[in-house]
Amino acid sequence: MRIDRSWLQSLCSWTLISIAALSTGAAIEIFEIGSLDAAEPQTRDLEVRASSQCPSSYQSDNGMNFTIYCNENIPFSDVFQPFAVSTMEECMERCSRYWGASQGCYGVVWNQNTTDCWIKNSTISTIGIYPETGTHAALVPRSQLSPLDTSCPFDDLSVQTLSSGEGFTIHCGKVIGGFDDCFQEYPECLSSPFIGYWHADSLQECMRICAQSHPLCLAVSWNPGMEIGYANCWPKTGSGNAIADPATGQGVLHTAVVTSIETINTTCPSDNSYTTSGKTFDIHCGQLNTGTNITAVHRANLTSCLDTCANNKQGCVSVVFDSTLQGGFQNCYLQNTTSVIRDNANTTFALLTGTSIPTSTPSGTNSPASSGGSSSSKAWIAGPVIGGIVAIALIIGAFLWWRKRTAQHKQQEYSLAPANHYSPTELDSSQAAEMGTTEMGQVYGNQTGVKYKHQSQTAQPPQELPT
Ligand SMILES: *[C@@H]1O[C@H](CO)[C@@H](O)[C@H](O)[C@H]1NC(C)=O
Ligand SMILES: *[C@@H]1O[C@H](CO)[C@@H](O)[C@H](O)[C@H]1NC(C)=O
Ligand SMILES: *[C@@H]1O[C@H](CO)[C@@H](O)[C@H](O)[C@H]1NC(C)=O
Ligand SMILES: *[C@@H]1O[C@H](CO)[C@@H](O)[C@H](O)[C@H]1NC(C)=O
Ligand SMILES: *[C@@H]1O[C@H](CO)[C@@H](O)[C@H](O)[C@H]1NC(C)=O
Ligand SMILES: *[C@@H]1O[C@H](CO)[C@@H](O)[C@H](O)[C@H]1NC(C)=O
Ligand SMILES: *[C@@H]1O[C@H](CO)[C@@H](O)[C@H](O)[C@H]1NC(C)=O
Ligand SMILES: *[C@@H]1O[C@H](CO)[C@@H](O)[C@H](O)[C@H]1NC(C)=O
Q: Can you tell me the distance from the alpha carbon of 300 to that of 323, in angstroms, rounded to the nearest whole number?
């Protein structure tokens, strides 16, 4: 089933006009609306469209750069049949996330008439390029896919501890099958072969990405040769018995499994208020706030989470503290707005005293004034007709919205700044400075039923990673 986008767009603009007309009570004659609708799509200049649909350069969200050839086609080298994506940018995003059996994506071609996107393999080159209006090609400079040092950066089975306090056991030359998830940091959830997202230049960087992922990341596999593609750092929600040798063609992979994590204080404080830095917070155990997250950091207990909120300069008014770490290792969520408060056994919500809590669902949606009533007599016929159209359009709109919601992950509001996506070093070191020392060496039995043996007696002692 395909829905014609331009038809929908015109219906939507039509609807907006109708709603506007209704809510202002203005009289509108039907033929005017009709003619507006008919005139709109045809008046757009083709040249303008072509250039606006082909960017002059592009860097994907995970850091892959493209050299773009607008109105040029490069045939052959197709990895598989084309698929439809709405923009050239989206086609390049797919390329940056493509996971192949033995090589990644080296370029794309996107046809703006059909919206078809072709993923190209390493045989692509500019040799066969030819001009074609409405078709745009983009090549990945080879240097970005040239293999990094594939030797194992740490001793096999050694324990490496990040400055954030998480201990990882290294499995050289191994990969974890499965345990993939759409982590909240991914800009969009895609299915195979585009499930991955992160690129890392080192196993250490990949481990840091894991420590910052939501929900809780319990392992990573890293592919320095990028045989699987540019998205070579794969956070995993577990590892189970799935630590294995890579398949032929995947090249070298190294794996790091979270084996120690500090114990989080799960006790709800007996006092229901806490004062720090001159600010008082009301504590609500077993609740959470669905408001806007500014950021998330790792904290061992609620009080140090509240200390962080009190000293935050971005308008922190409340926190959600997740003592189970289910949502991620960064378990202290600082928030700048309050919204619907819900019960949740695993989290504690604390609010700056005096901050108002909305009593019902926030009134963000402007419901169309269906009882707009007092329109002038001239519009008596337009009313019911437009009303019907509005109803249909709202249903379609709601359907599209729902589809978008389900297809696409909620945009994460406390994102690591896009520029930092592939260099979390700064984040990590600043966090280390903030946190000071943390107690380490606890056995971490996680919630998914996977048991982790504490390795430090048998393996080498934990080492602080070089920065
Ligand atoms: C992509 O281009 C930007 C800006 O020119 C540069 O800073 C970055 O290092 C490039 N990325 C890669 C992977 O080469
Ligand atoms: C690249 O694609 C072409 C055409 O689909 C195919 O013949 C070729 O074997 C592919 N090369 C590699 C290395 O996968
Ligand atoms: C796209 O459409 C334009 C206008 O109809 C046409 O000139 C052009 O050849 C088409 N390009 C492709 C690649 O289909
Ligand atoms: C856990 O937190 C509670 C309440 O804040 C406190 O009374 C208790 O001493 C803490 N336990 C540990 C082991 O720190
Ligand atoms: C804020 O973080 C919490 C905890 O992970 C999460 O449940 C919630 O969806 C986030 N809120 C938003 C608006 O992203
Ligand atoms: C809350 O924080 C988010 C993310 O930092 C920001 O975009 C938003 O404008 C802030 N909202 C308020 C009300 O301060
Ligand atoms: C909370 O954690 C901090 C830092 O880890 C520690 O200094 C403090 O004693 C803890 N507080 C409680 C109540 O456990
Ligand atoms: C709370 O955590 C437990 C185990 O950690 C989990 O089984 C349960 O589903 C969680 N409850 C909620 C409401 O998230």
A: 8
Region 297-319: what's the mean pLDDT? 93
SS3 231: coil
Q: Give residue-wise pLDDT tens across range 392-416.
A: 444 444 544 445 444 444 333 333 3
Ligand 8 center–CA 346 separation, angstroms: 6
* Architecture field, domain 50-145: 3-Layer(bba) Sandwich (3.50)
Scored b (16 or more CB within 10 A) or e, 184-202 reads bbbbbbbeebbbbbbbbbb
Using the mean position of ligand 4's atoms as its centre, give its distance from the Cα of residue 301 in Å: 8
Which ligand gives the minimal distance to the CA of 315? 6
Is the CB of residue 267 below 6 angstroms from any atom belonging to ligand 4?
A: yes
Q: Is the pLDDT of residue 109 over 60?
A: yes
* CATH fold match for the domains 50-145 and 273-358: yes
Q: Where are the domains of the chain?
A: 50-145, 147-263+439-467, 273-358
Q: What is the CATH number of domain 273-358?
A: 3.50.4.10
Looking at the CA of 60, which ligand is closest? 1
